[in-house]
Design a protein that fits this description.
Blueprint (H helix, E strand, L loop, with lengths): L1 H21 L1 H12 L4 H37 L22
């Protein structure tokens, strides 16, 4: 009876294993196994890329914070009066002939 159960399990496992290996998860697992462990150079390159991304995001957040403060000051009316252009002598209207 145990031989029959073993053969039955083996027969059922063949299509199940084929489905799992053909799935995206199975392919990702196969790539992970075949690539082995990552080298130190690859890890350091990934860390440098992540640090550059963090610096960029920090600068973006700071810019957004400054813009937000500026908009809040405009909404609340606390903005400094903008410099005004000085008016010069009156100019004649175009087409009046003067």
């Amino acid at each position: 009876m145990t031989v029959f159960a073993f053969v039955l399990v083996l027969i059922i496992m063949i299509p199940v294993l084929a489905i799992v290996i053909d799935s995206p998860v199975g392919q990702a697992l196969a790539r992970r196994i075949s690539s082995g462990s990552e080298g130190e150079a690859d890890v350091s390159a990934r860390i440098e890329a992540m640090e550059a991304d963090v610096r960029y995001l920090n600068e973006t957040v700071e810019t957004l914070r400054q813009e937000s403060e500026f908009l809040h000051s405009l909404i609340e009316g606390r903005a400094e009066d903008p410099p005004r252009l000085e008016t010069g002598p009156e100019r004649p209207e175009p087409g009046t002939g003067d």
